[in-house]
Each structure stands twice: as structure tokens, then as C-alpha cells.
Amino acid sequence: MATALRLGAFTLRSSMAAPASTTWKSTAINGYRAYSTGKAKTLKETFAAQIPGEIEKIKKLRKEYGSKVVGEVTLDQVYGGARGIKSLVWEGSVLDSEEGIRFRGKTIPECQELLPKAPGGQEPLPEGLFWLLLTGEVPSEQQVRELSAEWAARSTLPTYVNELLDRCPNTMHPMAQFSLAVTALEHESSFSKAYAKGMPKSQYWEHTFEDSMDLIAKLPTIASTIYRNVFKDGKVAPIQKDKDYGYNLANQLGFADNADFVELMRLYLTIHTDHEGGNVSAHTTHLVGSALSSPMLSLAAGLNGLAGPLHGLANQEVLVWLQKMKKAVGNDLSDQAITDYLWSTLKAGQVVPGYGHAVLRKTDPRYVSQREFAQKHLPDDPMFKLVSQVYKIAPGVLTEHGKTKNPYPNVDAHSGVLLQYYGLTEQNYYTVLFGVSRALGVLPQLIIDRAVGAPIERPKSFSTDAWAKLVGAKL
């Protein structure tokens, strides 16, 4: 496989030469031309071919079953944050309470096995999961390599975004800077410019696709610029055109000299992408996008939701709690010491961070994948040993406590410990990495929404008095 990307007078080729018999195909993409072998469809071609069938499927479903009742809503659900109300369409993933997340029907272990990997790597490339989430198909190695090259070619930040980030005070939270930069990229939006000129609805998805590809391509440089400005020397390595997305993020952060950290980034970016459509960051991106806001504005809104302590900041809170526990118990990781600390947390009216989930009733498979990574790469790390003991003891304590529906760990219970082991210790930054990954999960749905003509989202609301009247209550 070989790929060349023509930017102005320059042609960038991958490190693998094309065979002499290769037939090159040229496609214009936002001012440059992408050349790839004709043996594999591009992501855009693959998705475009699926659109008529998907539209027809939805039309048939609504025509034949549109009046079918799919559930009921209780007043408790209305006042409980709409928890469990079935009302959203989300193609990329479905969360089962017992077996966890499935990406287009595939479990995390299946994705780890089936999705293409970097040469010599063991973890799946996030490019492959993006392809899977958008199309429902597992891409070939060639298709993933070409997607990596396309993102690398689109990665250059406009000067004004670099200047904007450089002017941000170091005291501004990294997530605020992240949202600010993504919002500023609205200036580059293909969708917004085409809409202002009066494009037909049939072209909505194409411009949403182009914006999403441009946006994803630029996120590692944005995220790394924030990290290097706030915590390091402000210098950011350039994107390496022949490397994959996870490697480039690790390299720009300053950690690519550790091959295990690069593998961790590939795993981290893959498993944090998508978790159904009802979580705050996914639903917000979808909701804002339903108003035909650009992918830039839609994702920025989702990032602002991700920044909340009940959503994306959770892994940071877990690590703080674990560090306090380590300081309290020292080297005593006995069952009794851990049990006592867990009870002291609960009796103080606090929750055990990283345990419990709105839907899951078993150990989060994303936690399991990180645990397996740690067992392979850092089995003797003191903090990992502590995490393992908490994993052993906490479910029993929480079950005895009786106030937790799910006493098992979620993804946040592990990720912070892995990051700090490799030297990325700045906890305020962790949610930015989550945001880079989450973009890979929410933007495919935005593209799908525009392709199938999803309408603006507008549920009905009532006042408390109106709800009381509706249920026949006298207040």
C-alpha cells in the first residue's frame, strides 16, 4: 500500500512504495488531492454507497411501525434526569447492562482483535474504530493507513488558532482552551460556508463529513499545544505524515519515546470514543448539530458538557481519591486496610469514585481492557496494585452498603493511574485526552444524521404544576 498527498507543489508519500502495477486514483479534498491505490474504497466512498439503503431502511421502519409504542415514561424518570427513557437514535454503539458496550455490534475484545493495528503494535488503531462507527464495517489495513495519511495531511492549524492558544493564560482550564480552539475553527467550516450559499439538503452530509475529517485531524495538535503551553516549554512537534493518529498525539505531547505509552494512547483513544448517545457529551453534540450548527460548534458544545465533574472529570477525581488512599494506607494493601478506607469514604457521605454506572451492572469492559494493559506493562506499579485491591474489595463493600445499583468499576477507575505511570501526571489535563477520543465517536453520528435527514430535536416539556395536573396530583 502506498499513499501520496499533494499539497500545493509537494507530494507526501507513505514509507511503503507502491507496486509498479498500481493504478492511482485522484480525489479532491479541501484544496488538496489525495492519491490512493484503486484497490480499496475510501471512507467517504464507502459511506456514500450506504446512504440510499439506510434512508430506505428508516423510511420502511417508520412507515410500517411508526405508531408502535416502544416504552413508557414515569414521573420519576422525568424528574430523574430522563434516565432510561428510550428516545434517541444512535448508530455507533449500544450499551448492554450486562455485557457492556458494543461498537456496531462488536465488543471491545472483538474490536481489539479485528481492527487494524500499527506495524508491530498490539492495540487497535482509533482510525479503524472511526471507520467502523461511521460505516458498520471493519476496514482493511490499507484503508486505515490511508485514513491515517489523510488526517495527517489535514492537520495543519490556522495561524489564528495557534495565536489564540498562545494568548490563553496558563491558569485557564485546559478544557476551556480546548473548547475555545474548536469553536474558533468554525471560521474554516465547509458546512457553514456552503449553507450560507444555499446548498441543497442532499449535500449536507458531504460538508459535515469534510468538516469532521478536518476537525479530527487538527485535534491532536490543539490538545498538544494546550499541554505544552500550560505544563511544558510551549514547543510542539510537527505531525509526522507517515505515522498513525495515536502515535502523533503521543509524539506531540512529548511521550513518543516510550513505545508502551504510544500503545496506551491507541487503546485510550479507541475505548473512550463512544458510549451510546444519551451521555452528556454525545447528546449535546447531537442536539446542537440537529439545529444545523457546524461540526465545530456542535463538538465544542459537547466538550463543554464533557468538562463537567459528573462526566469527563471523573477519571481525575478517581486518581485524587486513590492518591489520598495511598497516603493513608501507605504500603499496607491488606484486605482489611482497603476495607476500612472504603467504609470511611462511605460513612463520610461520599461516593467511591469510579464505581457504579447509570446503565452497566457488571464491570465495565473498558476498565477490563485497561486492567489487562496494566497487567502486561506495569504489573509491579504500586498504584496499579492499589487499584487491583480496590477492585477486589470494593464490590463487596458497596453491596453491603446497599445504596449502589452497580458495585463494579467503570472506565474512570483505571485510566488516570495508567497516565500518571508514564509521566503524564497533570490531572487537570486528562479530560482533554477524553475529548479527543470522544470526537471520534460523536462526529460519525453527526455525519449520519445529516445523511439520513434527521430533524431538529425538540422534546416536549412541562412545568411542575402541569406535570401534577397530567398525573392527577393535587399539590
UniProtKB/TrEMBL annotation:
PANTHER family: CITRATE SYNTHASE (PTHR11739), CITRATE SYNTHASE, MITOCHONDRIAL (PTHR11739:SF8)
GO biological process: carbohydrate metabolic process; citrate metabolic process; tricarboxylic acid cycle
Keyword terms, alphabetized: Transferase, Transit peptide
Catalysed reactions listed for this entry: propanoyl-CoA + oxaloacetate + H2O = (2S,3S)-2-methylcitrate + CoA + H(+); oxaloacetate + acetyl-CoA + H2O = citrate + CoA + H(+)
GO cellular component: mitochondrial matrix
A GO term, aspect molecular function: citrate synthase activity
SUPFAM superfamilies: Citrate synthase (SSF48256)
Domain of life: Eukaryota
Name of a matching Pfam family: Citrate_synt
Family affiliation: Belongs to the citrate synthase family.
Record's protein name: Citrate synthase
Active site residues of this protein: 311, 357, 412
